[in-house]
Specification:
The chain has about 180 residues and is an alpha/beta fold. The chain has one domain: Rossmann fold (3-Layer(aba) Sandwich). Helices cover about 45% and strands about 20% of the residues. It has a 5-stranded parallel beta sheet with strand order 2-7-1-8-9, with helices on both faces. A 4-stranded mixed beta sheet has the order 4-3-6-5. The longest helix is centred in the C-terminal third of the chain and has 20 residues. It starts with a strand and ends with a helix.
């Protein structure tokens, strides 16, 4: 099964996904590519940090399952990672934006779409500032958060409000277990 987890920046997707994957050994996280620079204290294994030319060459070669441009940076899920991680006894988790979720839904209509949101935009603002985003980036992310939430609803994603991280992970696991065959 392919599980797509999306949501606006600063809602705790990365933290929730890390805990989710740690809690269920059947889950495998795909490693996305990006052209943006690493954030302060961001692990080098969270993304493949690539130059724009390398990324665009991979697009031209059909090397991404999905890709999108967001705030001037490219993000994408590489096809080889997806193929390597789709073992019969595991489920692939994609942590991507709603544009990417729509692309995956087109290719894999049975993908499970989960959308994580903050309990409020004020809470989202605090999280973005707390992780070190610059003030302009915070405002840009907040300005599009409601559009992203609307797009998630249009895709039919299950919405999970990240008010408490432990509860959020339990809810994500419940949704995933409910979608698994058998």
């Amino acid at each position: 099964m392919i599980i797509v987890i999306s949501g606006p920046g600063g809602v705790g997707k990365g933290t929730a996904v890390a805990r989710l994957v740690a809690a269920d050994p059947r889950l495998r996280l795909s490693r996305s590519w990006t052209t943006r620079p690493p954030r302060p204290h961001e692990s080098a294994d969270h993304y493949v940090f690539a130059g724009r030319t390398d990324f665009e060459e991979r697009i031209a070669a059909g090397g991404f399952l999905e890709w999108a441009e967001f705030q001037g940076h490219l993000y994408g899920t590489p096809v080889p990672d997806v193929a390597a991680q789709r073992a019969p006894d595991s489920d692939l988790v994609l942590e991507i934006d709603v544009q990417g979720a729509a692309q995956v839904r087109q290719r894999f209509p049975d993908a499970l779409l989960l959308f994580i949101d903050a309990p409020s935009r004020d809470a989202q603002r605090r999280r973005l500032v707390g992780r070190g985003d610059d003030p302009d980036a915070v405002e840009r992310r907040l300005a599009i958060a409601d559009r992203e939430a609307a797009a998630g609803h249009e895709l039919g994603a299950h919405v999970v409000i990240n008010d408490d991280l432990d509860d959020t992970v339990v809810e994500l696991l419940r949704r995933i277990d409910g979608a698994r065959p058998g």
